[in-house]
Amino acid sequence: MGQKSNPKSLRIKYKGWESNWFPSQNNQYKDFAYSDFVIRGLVNKELERAGVSDIRILRKAKYTEVYVVVARPGIIFGKNAIDLGVLNNSISNKCGSKISIKVLEQKNPDTSSKLLAQWISGQLEKRVPFRRAMKMAVKRCKTAGGLGIKIICSGRLGGVEIARSESYKEGKVPLGTFRTNIDYSFTEALTTYGKIGIKVWVNKGDHFEEFNYTLPDNQKKNKKDKKYVNAKKN
Protein backbone atom coordinates (compact mmCIF):
# COMPACT_ATOMS: atom_id res chain seq x y z
CA MET A 1 0.00 0.00 0.00
CA GLY A 2 3.05 2.25 -0.14
CA GLN A 3 1.87 3.87 -3.35
CA LYS A 4 -1.31 5.10 -1.61
CA SER A 5 0.42 6.79 1.34
CA ASN A 6 2.38 10.01 1.58
CA PRO A 7 6.09 9.05 1.87
CA LYS A 8 6.75 12.06 4.11
CA SER A 9 4.27 11.05 6.80
CA LEU A 10 5.56 7.47 6.79
CA ARG A 11 9.13 8.68 7.42
CA ILE A 12 8.54 11.30 10.11
CA LYS A 13 10.75 9.29 12.47
CA TYR A 14 13.74 9.76 10.16
CA LYS A 15 13.05 13.08 8.42
CA GLY A 16 11.56 15.11 11.29
CA TRP A 17 8.70 17.59 11.30
CA GLU A 18 8.43 20.56 8.94
CA SER A 19 6.95 22.64 11.77
CA ASN A 20 8.24 22.43 15.34
CA TRP A 21 6.08 23.93 18.08
CA PHE A 22 4.03 22.98 21.11
CA PRO A 23 0.84 24.87 22.10
CA SER A 24 0.62 25.72 25.79
CA GLN A 25 -3.17 25.94 25.53
CA ASN A 26 -5.66 23.88 23.53
CA ASN A 27 -7.02 26.87 21.60
CA GLN A 28 -3.52 27.76 20.33
CA TYR A 29 -3.31 24.73 18.06
CA LYS A 30 -5.66 26.11 15.40
CA ASP A 31 -3.93 29.51 15.54
CA PHE A 32 -0.47 27.99 15.05
CA ALA A 33 -1.69 25.72 12.24
CA TYR A 34 -3.31 28.64 10.39
CA SER A 35 -0.21 30.78 10.97
CA ASP A 36 1.97 28.06 9.40
CA PHE A 37 -0.36 27.96 6.39
CA VAL A 38 -0.11 31.75 5.93
CA ILE A 39 3.69 31.75 6.32
CA ARG A 40 4.23 29.01 3.74
CA GLY A 41 1.85 30.63 1.26
CA LEU A 42 3.50 34.07 1.45
CA VAL A 43 7.05 32.71 1.33
CA ASN A 44 6.32 30.49 -1.68
CA LYS A 45 4.66 33.41 -3.48
CA GLU A 46 7.28 36.11 -2.78
CA LEU A 47 10.38 33.91 -3.20
CA GLU A 48 9.12 31.88 -6.15
CA ARG A 49 11.96 33.06 -8.44
CA ALA A 50 14.55 31.81 -5.95
CA GLY A 51 13.26 28.21 -6.19
CA VAL A 52 11.95 27.34 -2.72
CA SER A 53 12.56 23.66 -1.99
CA ASP A 54 11.77 23.50 1.73
CA ILE A 55 10.32 25.64 4.52
CA ARG A 56 10.89 24.81 8.18
CA ILE A 57 9.14 26.65 11.00
CA LEU A 58 10.59 26.71 14.51
CA ARG A 59 8.52 28.50 17.17
CA LYS A 60 10.29 29.86 20.22
CA ALA A 61 8.94 31.62 23.30
CA LYS A 62 8.95 35.19 21.95
CA TYR A 63 9.29 34.83 18.18
CA THR A 64 9.17 32.40 15.25
CA GLU A 65 12.10 31.38 13.05
CA VAL A 66 11.34 30.51 9.41
CA TYR A 67 14.11 28.64 7.57
CA VAL A 68 13.74 28.83 3.79
CA VAL A 69 15.85 26.51 1.61
CA VAL A 70 16.27 27.91 -1.92
CA ALA A 71 18.05 26.74 -5.07
CA ARG A 72 19.08 30.25 -6.22
CA PRO A 73 20.14 32.35 -3.19
CA GLY A 74 21.74 34.90 -5.52
CA ILE A 75 18.27 36.22 -6.35
CA ILE A 76 17.78 37.06 -2.67
CA PHE A 77 21.29 38.34 -1.89
CA GLY A 78 22.26 39.66 -5.35
CA LYS A 79 22.14 43.16 -6.87
CA ASN A 80 18.37 43.27 -7.32
CA ALA A 81 17.83 41.52 -4.01
CA ILE A 82 14.42 40.73 -2.59
CA ASP A 83 13.80 42.79 0.56
CA LEU A 84 13.32 40.17 3.25
CA GLY A 85 12.49 42.90 5.75
CA VAL A 86 9.31 43.79 3.85
CA LEU A 87 8.33 40.12 3.61
CA ASN A 88 9.07 39.65 7.29
CA ASN A 89 6.90 42.61 8.27
CA SER A 90 3.98 41.51 6.08
CA ILE A 91 4.05 38.02 7.61
CA SER A 92 4.34 39.46 11.13
CA ASN A 93 1.32 41.69 10.56
CA LYS A 94 -0.82 38.79 9.31
CA CYS A 95 0.29 36.32 11.97
CA GLY A 96 0.44 38.76 14.87
CA SER A 97 3.87 37.57 16.07
CA LYS A 98 7.54 38.39 15.53
CA ILE A 99 9.06 36.53 12.56
CA SER A 100 12.71 35.97 11.67
CA ILE A 101 13.36 34.66 8.13
CA LYS A 102 16.62 32.85 7.45
CA VAL A 103 17.73 31.64 4.03
CA LEU A 104 19.72 28.45 3.35
CA GLU A 105 21.01 27.09 0.05
CA GLN A 106 19.80 23.85 -1.52
CA LYS A 107 22.92 21.78 -2.15
CA ASN A 108 21.69 19.61 -5.03
CA PRO A 109 18.60 21.19 -6.66
CA ASP A 110 18.14 18.50 -9.33
CA THR A 111 17.43 15.84 -6.67
CA SER A 112 14.72 17.91 -4.97
CA SER A 113 11.26 16.57 -5.82
CA LYS A 114 9.63 19.96 -5.23
CA LEU A 115 12.00 21.80 -7.58
CA LEU A 116 11.64 19.12 -10.25
CA ALA A 117 7.83 19.26 -9.99
CA GLN A 118 7.93 23.06 -10.26
CA TRP A 119 10.22 22.82 -13.28
CA ILE A 120 7.88 20.37 -15.05
CA SER A 121 4.95 22.65 -14.21
CA GLY A 122 6.74 25.61 -15.78
CA GLN A 123 7.53 23.62 -18.92
CA LEU A 124 3.91 22.51 -19.34
CA GLU A 125 2.70 26.10 -18.91
CA LYS A 126 5.11 27.07 -21.71
CA ARG A 127 3.41 24.48 -23.96
CA VAL A 128 6.36 22.05 -23.95
CA PRO A 129 5.14 18.47 -24.72
CA PHE A 130 4.54 16.66 -21.43
CA ARG A 131 6.50 13.54 -22.41
CA ARG A 132 9.54 15.62 -23.28
CA ALA A 133 9.32 17.57 -20.01
CA MET A 134 9.04 14.37 -17.96
CA LYS A 135 11.97 12.69 -19.73
CA MET A 136 14.15 15.77 -19.28
CA ALA A 137 13.33 15.87 -15.55
CA VAL A 138 14.23 12.17 -15.21
CA LYS A 139 17.54 12.77 -17.00
CA ARG A 140 18.39 15.76 -14.79
CA CYS A 141 17.71 13.78 -11.62
CA LYS A 142 19.76 10.76 -12.68
CA THR A 143 22.64 12.98 -13.80
CA ALA A 144 22.63 14.74 -10.41
CA GLY A 145 23.00 11.43 -8.56
CA GLY A 146 19.42 10.38 -7.80
CA LEU A 147 19.10 6.61 -7.33
CA GLY A 148 15.59 6.55 -8.75
CA ILE A 149 12.74 8.80 -9.82
CA LYS A 150 9.06 8.38 -10.58
CA ILE A 151 6.83 11.03 -12.19
CA ILE A 152 3.07 10.98 -12.74
CA CYS A 153 1.20 13.65 -14.71
CA SER A 154 -2.61 13.63 -14.64
CA GLY A 155 -5.14 15.76 -16.49
CA ARG A 156 -5.93 16.81 -20.04
CA LEU A 157 -2.47 15.95 -21.30
CA GLY A 158 -1.79 17.48 -24.69
CA GLY A 159 -5.15 19.26 -24.60
CA VAL A 160 -7.25 16.15 -25.25
CA GLU A 161 -10.87 16.09 -24.06
CA ILE A 162 -10.57 12.98 -21.89
CA ALA A 163 -8.23 13.28 -18.90
CA ARG A 164 -5.70 10.53 -18.27
CA SER A 165 -2.49 9.80 -16.37
CA GLU A 166 0.99 9.08 -17.72
CA SER A 167 4.03 8.08 -15.69
CA TYR A 168 7.77 7.66 -16.13
CA LYS A 169 10.01 5.71 -13.80
CA GLU A 170 13.74 5.08 -13.81
CA GLY A 171 15.84 3.39 -11.15
CA LYS A 172 14.52 2.10 -7.82
CA VAL A 173 11.79 3.88 -5.86
CA PRO A 174 10.94 1.51 -2.95
CA LEU A 175 7.98 3.27 -1.32
CA GLY A 176 7.46 0.45 1.17
CA THR A 177 11.03 0.54 2.53
CA PHE A 178 10.90 3.10 5.32
CA ARG A 179 14.68 3.32 5.75
CA THR A 180 14.95 4.67 2.19
CA ASN A 181 14.93 8.45 1.90
CA ILE A 182 12.06 9.13 -0.53
CA ASP A 183 11.48 12.79 -1.36
CA TYR A 184 7.90 13.41 -2.54
CA SER A 185 6.17 16.49 -3.87
CA PHE A 186 2.98 17.50 -5.66
CA THR A 187 2.14 20.60 -7.68
CA GLU A 188 -0.26 21.73 -10.39
CA ALA A 189 0.37 23.27 -13.80
CA LEU A 190 -2.17 25.92 -14.82
CA THR A 191 -2.52 25.41 -18.57
CA THR A 192 -5.02 26.92 -21.01
CA TYR A 193 -6.94 23.62 -21.13
CA GLY A 194 -7.12 23.09 -17.36
CA LYS A 195 -5.01 22.00 -14.42
CA ILE A 196 -2.47 19.18 -14.70
CA GLY A 197 -1.41 17.45 -11.50
CA ILE A 198 2.27 16.53 -11.17
CA LYS A 199 3.63 14.06 -8.61
CA VAL A 200 7.35 13.38 -8.19
CA TRP A 201 9.12 10.76 -6.07
CA VAL A 202 12.94 10.82 -5.79
CA ASN A 203 15.04 8.10 -4.15
CA LYS A 204 17.98 9.69 -2.29
CA GLY A 205 19.34 6.48 -0.80
CA ASP A 206 19.35 5.15 2.76
CA HIS A 207 20.90 8.27 4.30
CA PHE A 208 18.64 10.76 6.10
CA GLU A 209 20.14 14.19 6.72
CA GLU A 210 18.90 16.03 9.80
CA PHE A 211 17.78 19.58 9.08
CA ASN A 212 20.47 21.98 10.31
CA TYR A 213 18.91 24.98 12.07
CA THR A 214 22.10 27.07 11.74
CA LEU A 215 23.22 29.60 9.17
CA PRO A 216 26.27 29.06 6.92
CA ASP A 217 29.55 30.69 8.02
CA ASN A 218 29.48 33.26 5.21
CA GLN A 219 26.15 34.63 6.47
CA LYS A 220 27.25 34.64 10.11
CA LYS A 221 30.45 36.60 9.41
CA ASN A 222 28.69 39.21 7.29
CA LYS A 223 25.56 39.56 9.38
CA LYS A 224 26.06 43.36 9.63
CA ASP A 225 26.12 43.67 5.84
CA LYS A 226 22.73 44.62 4.41
CA LYS A 227 23.00 41.83 1.84
CA TYR A 228 22.98 39.21 4.57
CA VAL A 229 20.39 40.69 6.92
CA ASN A 230 17.81 37.92 6.99
CA ALA A 231 14.98 39.84 8.62
CA LYS A 232 14.28 42.87 10.73
CA LYS A 233 13.11 42.11 14.24
CA ASN A 234 10.35 44.34 15.52
Strand order of the largest sheet: 1-2-3-4
CATH homologous superfamily of the largest domain, by name?
Answer: K homology (KH) domain
Supply the CATH class of the largest domain: Alpha Beta
Give the mean pLDDT. 84
Topology (SSEs and partners):
Elements (H helix, E strand, L loop, with lengths): L6 H4 L1 H4 L3 E2 L7 H19 L5 E8 L4 E7 L3 H4 L6 H12 L3 E7 L7 H13 L4 H14 L4 E8 L8 E8 L10 E10 L2 E10 L13 H5 L13
Parallel strand pairs: 1-2, 3-4
Antiparallel strand pairs: 2-3, 5-6, 5-8, 7-8
Helix pairs in contact: 3-5, 6-7
Please provide a written account of the structure.
- The chain has 234 residues and is of the alpha/beta class.
- The protein has 2 domains: 15-107 and 211-228, GMP Synthetase, Chain A, domain 3, CATH 3.30.300.20; 109-203, 2-Layer Sandwich (Ribosomal protein S3 C-terminal domain).
- It is 32% helix and 26% strand.
- Helix 6 (113-125) packs antiparallel against helix 7 (130-143).
- It is globular.
- The protein starts with 6 loop residues before the first helix and ends in a 13-residue tail after the last helix.
- Residues 221-234 have low confidence and may be disordered.
